[in-house]
Design a protein that fits this description.
Elements: H1 8-29, H2 35-48, E1 53-57, H3 60-70, E2 77-81, H4 88-95, E3 99-102, H5 114-127, E4 133-137, H6 149-159, E5 162-166, E6 174-177, H7 187-192, E7 209-212, E8 219-223, E9 237-241, H8 244-254, E10 258-260, E11 263-264, H9 275-285, H10 288-306, E12 321-322, E13 328-331, H11 335-344, H12 374-382, E14 383-386, H13 394-413
Parallel strand pairs: 2-3, 2-4, 4-5, 5-8
Antiparallel strand pairs: 1-9, 6-7, 6-12, 8-9, 10-11, 13-14
Length: 414
């Protein structure tokens, strides 16, 4: 590839000495699971997220599954989420025995549409059908862009539902909250404010408090898959929460239900965070604010370079959002042809995601069909992710933009 979708090799070359030290320390201590490195990372990541507690686990999928289980979600419950997301969001719901229920996304933010959420819950209340009962909402902060959490939290509170955030793509993203929703463990964050000063970047951000994604629901799930903004050198994840009871339950669930060695309070899982991965994440966490800032710079430059190319729809950052651009995703009705052209030009790309969950064979049993979620279906047919990573150079970006412009010219002449 001239320009890959993501270049993890550059990042790790720069960090190699520090990461080797982490590995050597683990070899010398002989502690590979739990231990001081895991505890230190949990404390540092909780602080980064504006949360009281962080519990390291083996993946983002486990993080969401354990968060749901610790919140009391199980058979007979409905958990409402979106069909335009990675399958792990719905897998975690299914795997705790609950039923995933989908509502559509907003076209601009590409996150859960609060109006569609309200419509579903109002209709659900009127129908009063038996079987399952709505219990929780899982909004997804997709591509590093926050969902509209004030609206979602208000709806959840009125309908008596829990909120578990899927923040697996949103490490460090901020949401401008203009409301306090009592009972949702949010007061702690408002006392301290945010770690950054996004008001310098976004006009009209003075009225409210910038809150980190992951700090607003009852709990939140993060993934540290290698390509994430904060990525391990393998699989890893974390649950963050303001609730001590939730944190303690997740600690039990990740370690076979143990409160102490060979004392099993519940039937649990083997979902612990490796000490080496925790040490690697500690090294990277110190650099994450800088990396996120570089991603925002690159996204802004893409917007400038691609501006005015009418067939393209560029990412939209909502007034309430400070995105960390886990992915830079544009839209075009000629997505598949553009993908072929970029491939020929050796420009990396991704399609996140080509088929919404309600149309996946795995979820055929839920009874949804084509046309049920038109915005998600439209996005799935148009989205294409362009290369974006903190170490990207001006030259890299110019090559990508040139390839996109060349495709548009050829398509216009066809």
């Amino acid at each position: 590839m001239k320009v890959p979708l993501v270049d993890l090799a550059i990042q790790h070359r720069e960090l190699e000495k520090e990461l080797v030290k982490v590995f050597r320390a683990a070899l010398r201590s002989g502690i590979f699971v739990d231990g001081a490195e895991v505890a230190a990372f949990e404390e540092e990541f909780a602080e980064f997220c504006g949360a009281k507690y962080s519990v390291g686990v083996s993946s983002g999928t486990d993080a969401l599954r354990f968060a749901l289980l610790a919140s009391g979600i199980g058979p007979g419950d409905e958990v409402i989420t979106v069909p335009f997301t990675f399958i792990a969001t719905a897998e975690a719901i299914s795997q705790v025995g609950a039923r995933p229920v989908f509502v559509d996304v907003e076209e601009k933010s590409r996150t859960m549409d609060p109006q569609k959420l309200e419509e579903y819950l109002s209709k659900r209340k009127r129908d009063k059908r038996g079987g399952t009962v709505p219990k929780a909402i899982v909004p997804v902060h997709l591509y590093g862009h926050p969902a509209d959490m004030d609206s979602i939290m208000d709806i959840a509170q009125r309908h008596g539902l829990l909120v578990i955030e899927d923040a697996c793509q949103a490490h460090g993203a901020l949401y401008l909250s203009r409301k306090v929703s009592p009972g949702w463990k949010r007061g702690e964050q408002r006392e301290g404010g945010s770690r950054t000063e996004p008001s310098q970047e976004k006009e009209g951000s003075a009225d409210g408090m910038w809150l980190p994604c992951g700090s607003m629901g009852l709990a939140a799930a993060f993934s540290f898959y290698p390509s994430k903004n904060l990525g391990a050198c393998g699989e890893a994840g974390a649950v963050v929460t303001q609730d001590q009871d939730i944190a303690e339950k997740v600690r039990m669930l990740r370690d076979h239900g143990q409160t102490r060695k060979y004392r099993h309070e519940v039937e649990g899982y083997n979902g612990r965070l490796d000490a080496i991965q925790a040490g690697i994440l500690r090294v990277k966490l110190k650099r994450l604010p800088h990396w996120n800032a570089k991603r925002r710079e690159r996204a802004k430059r893409y917007n400038e370079l691609l501006s005015g190319l009418e067939p393209l729809i560029l990412p939209n950052e909502a007034p309430y959002a400070l995105s960390v651009y886990h992915l830079y995703v544009i839209r075009t009705e000629q997505r598949d042809k553009m993908a072929e052209h970029l491939s020929r030009q050796k420009i990396g790309f991704g399609i996140h995601y080509p088929l919404p969950l309600h149309l996946q064979r795995a979820y055929r049993h839920l009874g949804y069909g084509k046309g049920d979620f038109p915005v998600s279906e439209k996005l799935a047919s148009q989205v294409i992710s362009l290369p974006l990573y903190p170490e990207m150079t001006d030259s890299d970006q110019e090559q990508v933009v040139e390839a996109v412009k060349e495709f548009l010219k050829l398509a216009g002449e066809a």
